[in-house]
Task: structure prediction
Amino acid sequence: MSNILSGVPALSNVNQIIIDGHSFTFEEFSEGKETYIFINGWCSIRYFWTPYISDFSPLGKCIALDVLGHFPSVAGSNFNELSFEDYIKIQAKAIQALAENKKVNLIGHSTGGMFALAIGALYPNLIKKVVSITPAVHGPLIGIIHFAKVMTDLKLDVSLELFFTFIKNFPSLFHKWFEEAAYNGNDFVNREDVKEFILNYHSNFIKLDPYIMGRYLQVLHNADLRPLMIDSNLEALVIGASHDPIVPVEQHREVCSLLKNGKYYEVVPSGHIPTLEKKEETISVILNYLK
Result:
């Protein structure tokens, strides 16, 4: 059976693991000596990575793994009590369960990129290399994400539920979500490849839990990666985007400058999703680094 987003055949069905009362689903796409685990960002899903799997499969085993609490995984009853450090610890346990007692490579986007850097720094015996694409580095949150965070603080996170309801009932609004994140948004969402991706992505996106997404905003608002990077020997490639409206590019540059073994590449011009906006360039840089 082919994956709904790109026709990439999976080697196995979707699998599930339980970590500290939280479920994670994952899907394996290829085999090999090296393992590459892909993790998505906030308000995203692991299907985000499907269009790129065929590029990475020749390198080894590729696994798309849920981020804690993101559909189709299910957060445990204590999710609202968890801290950023708890998120990282639980996510690391899920990665360790898939690592088969060897070091793995992590590729993450946005909040997934933030998680990848944190896990790489805190668990050096688990992680070989990290690729972090337009990562969130520290709060406070900005722009529309900050507004959503304030609504959550005021117990108005029903506004997030209304947002998901609108997106569900009016799929055309979903294009606006991507348009706001891109550099040249209108041209971007009207590209044929992007329109197809958005259409297929929508049915999974709307299943995210808005209250879980709201809690993430509260936790990420006060999170800060920088202290973890200063003494770390982590080998990491940080990919920044020159016109990122979600995470200021200065954060991308700064976090890499703190790493002893960090390499930095900036996609110009690009918004928050260089893997889609400048796919050929971005994927080529990542593959060269991992090889």
Q: What stands out?
A: The domain at 15-290 is CATH 3.40.50.1820 (Rossmann fold).
